[in-house]
Amino acid sequence: TWADVLDAMDEANAYLESSDTKYKSVAQGILAKLNAAVDALVDKAPTNSPAPSDDPTPADPTPTNPAPSDGPTPTVPAPSDDPTPADPTPTSPTGSNPTPGNAATNINKNKVPSKKVTVKPVTVKKVSLKKVRAMKKRSIKVTWKKLSGVSGYQICLATNKKMTKNKKIITVKNAKAATKTIKKLKKNKKYYVKVRAYKIVNGKKKCGAWSKVKTVKVK
Fold first, then answer.
1. Cβ distance 133 to 218 under 8 Å?
2. Could you give the 3-state DSSP secondary structure of residue 162?
3. Averaging pLDDT over each range in 56-60, 74-78, 168-172, which range is the top one?
4. Strand-pair partners of 137
């Protein structure tokens, strides 16, 4: 053992320091004993074990990297001439859960877009006024062409062409009506008459354009 080697060395040093020549044979025997012990330690020591060092500094406990295995050698991509830096964003492996940002994007992509409801403006056709005829007892009869899809009609009459004097508007709520008799008018007076249709939409009255004006003289 190394203890034997150390003891032999101490003993050899002690004898060699003496000036007496009678101890030379003893020193030689000790040295032979020391050489035999060293040879025995060398035979027993493992081949990969490092020889003991006189340096009291403790060995570095950092583990060394293991030798590369026989497995496939990882390939290192060749450097590219493109100066544009690579995208540092990590990519998700196949089958892994998407990140929260990607999940929100997927939800937005999978969301069915809502259809736009286009509300068409309500239009009421213009009425065609056929004739206005004077009746007896200060009355007149107004006749027009009936329209489909309306709620009723309005008749406007006045005593001047601008339809401002003695103006009166009569509402006919029957949508199927095509005539209306108006009574209690001024005798021997000329009246201007026009008609339009209207339609009720969401509780509001939507009126069409007025017809052409016709005149009649009351009897």
1. no
2. coil
3. 168-172
4. none
